[in-house]
Amino acid sequence: METGFNKKVCRELGEKVEAALNEALKGSGFEMRRGGGKFTEVSYTMKMVFSLTDGETQAHKDYREFAALEYTGFPPDMLDATFKYGSVGEITVIGWLPNRRKNDILFVNSKGEERIGPSEDVIFWYTSKFGKYIKPKMNIQPEEMEVTFTGKQ
User: Fold this and answer.
1) CB-side exposure of 19: number of CA atoms within 13 Å?
2) Residue 48: enclosing H or E segment and its boundaries?
3) Which residues are bridge partners to 106 per DSSP?
4) Would residue 16 be called left, alpha or beta, if left means φ above 0 and alpha means ψ between -120 and 50 degrees?
5) Which tens digits make up the pLDDT trace of 6-16?
6) Nearest to residue 84, comparing CAs of 125, 127, 117?
7) Considering only CA atoms, which of 87, 86, 68, 88 is closest in space to residue 76?
8) How far apart are CA 63 and CA 67, in angstroms?
9) Alpha-carbon distance 23 to 42, whole Å?
10) Smallest Cα–Cα separation from 89: which of 74, 63, 107?
11) What CA–CA distance (Å, rounded) separates 83 from 48?
12) Comparing C-alpha atoms, which of 81, 151, 86 is closest to residue 117?
């Protein structure tokens, strides 16, 4: 019987490799997760993503740092919030992907799978549960300044 790589074989092999590597990395401060891959009938190339277990992902960090900026329009409390998202079901927002134009919000669905979605839709469903986020206005009073010019006028 001749066997080759297919989607099912690659998934099973990936799960075994991920479990073995995470077991070997236990206590080292690192973890590994599969990042996709490609296969033909005779070969399988698996991508692996190593990260710090006590650190945060880049997407999580980007959301936390840039949510307060006016142009993003992201509610800061939406990060790590769980809510219903259309027909997908319950999701938890885990980050922002700033290099993506449309599907820029990273979330985990109820099955534990990482997915992406457009920020406009995700914010709509978030605000339908928690209400509209209103950014506080900064009440900064201008101070009197004394300006002194040196040189010719």
Assistant:
1) 6
2) strand 44-52
3) 95, 116
4) alpha
5) 999 998 998 99
6) 125
7) 68
8) 5
9) 28
10) 107
11) 29
12) 86
Q: Considering only CA atoms, which of 68, 89, 78 is closest in space to residue 119?
A: 78
Token duo for residue 124: 């709509």
**How confident is the model over 8-67, as pLDDT tens digits?**
999 899 899 989 998 998 888 888 888 778 999 899 999 888 877 666 788 888 998 888
Q: Using CA atoms, how far apart are residues 105 and 119, in angstroms rounded to an integer? A: 6
Instruction: Using the structure block, give the residue that is written with the tokens 């997915």.
Output: 115
Q: What is the percent of the chain where pLDDT is above 90?
A: 31
The answer to whether the pTM exceeds 0.70 is no
Position of tokens 């997407």? 59
- Determine the straight-line distance between the first and last CA of the chain, rounded to whole angstroms: 93
Task: Report how far residue 92's alpha carbon sits from residue 10's, in angstroms, rounded to the nearest whole number.
Answer: 28
DSSP letters spanning 9-71: HHHHHHHHHHHHHHHHTTTTTEEEEEEEEEE-SS-EEEEEEEEESSS--HHHHHHHHHTTSTT
Looking up tokens 């820029």, which residue turns up?
104
